[in-house]
Design brief:
There is one protein chain. With 209 residues, the protein is an alpha/beta fold. It has 2 domains: 5-93 and 181-208, Periplasmic binding protein-like II (D-Maltodextrin-Binding Protein, domain 2), CATH 3.40.190.10; 95-179, D-Maltodextrin-Binding Protein, domain 2. The protein has 9 helices and 11 strands. The strands form 2 sheets. A 6-stranded mixed beta sheet has the order 2-3-1-4-11-5, sandwiched between helices. Strand 2 (40-43) and strand 3 (48-53) form a beta hairpin. Bound molecules: 1-O-pyrophosphono-5-O-phosphono-alpha-D-ribofuranose. 1-O-pyrophosphono-5-O-phosphono-alpha-D-ribofuranose (PRP) binds next to strand 9 and helix 7.
């Protein structure tokens, strides 16, 4: 394990929000803003290394101890599970999981097992298990809104932020599943070996929110 604190950021919006947070703390974020295609970056003078990865990979790197910390959405945490500490709700990246279906369709009505399309089968299974309702789950990789339109599903469980995608495709929310926001996660061994520095960084990030 490196002596630096290595933090994995989910590429894209959560990355930008975290870089904004680092700037508020007073870190030099020049390299993070002007990164080109580089994937491992330095925060000068802080002994902090930033790794840019896809959400699920942020969790993998933190679980394996390749990174001490990670910034990842609660959506990925709920779907992926795993062994790490979730130490802070960073507040940004707010959206929600929701069950949606075609406008005016009676999702809970009628007989027979319903089909639900989603990128998040574990979250979906857990949601319907909680309702003791048997559903068939179809895994879709993106633009899940297509599934009910193409008549392969009665509903979808997906991320809703502004609701525009649902609206523009003639779908509506039936029920909210769970709120989502960015979380700070920590490798279990790092939490012991680098406790002080990790706690200091986590506190600085939370104060700057
Ligand atoms: C997400 C989600 C919805 C959309 C919701 O998709 O799956 O499609 O954002 O946002 P809205 O409520 O503000 O319209 P994303 O753009 O991440 O890509 P994806 O379709 O590949 O999942």
């Amino acid at each position: 394990m490196s002596d630096k604190i290595r933090i994995a950021l989910t590429k894209g919006r959560l990355e930008k929000d975290t870089v904004g947070l680092f700037e508020k703390i007073g870190f030099d974020v020049t390299e993070l803003r002007d990164k080109g295609r580089r994937l491992i970056l330095e925060v000068p003078g802080q002994d902090i290394e930033v790794v840019l990865a896809k959400a699920a990979d942020v969790i993998t790197y933190v679980e394996l101890g390749a990174c001490d910390l990670g910034v990842v959405g609660k959506d990925t945490i709920l779907e992926h599970g795993g062994r790490y500490f979730e130490v802070a709700d960073l507040g940004f990246g707010r959206c929600r999981f929701a069950l949606a279906s075609k406008k005016g369709s009676d999702f809970y009505g009628g007989v027979g097992v319903k089909t639900v399309a989603t990128k998040y089968p574990n979250v979906t299974r857990h949601f319907f298990e909680g309702k003791r309702m048997d559903v068939d789950i179809v895994k879709i990789e993106g633009s899940v809104e297509l599934a009910p339109l193409l008549r392969i599903a009665d509903g979808i469980v997906d991320i809703v932020e502004t609701g525009t995608t649902l609206k523009e495709n003639g779908l509506e929310v039936i029920e909210d599943v769970v709120p989502i926001s960015a979380r700070l996660i920590v490798n279990t061994v790092s939490m012991k070996l680098k406790k002080e520095r990790i706690e200091t960084l986590a506190e600085m990030m939370q104060k700057a929110l």
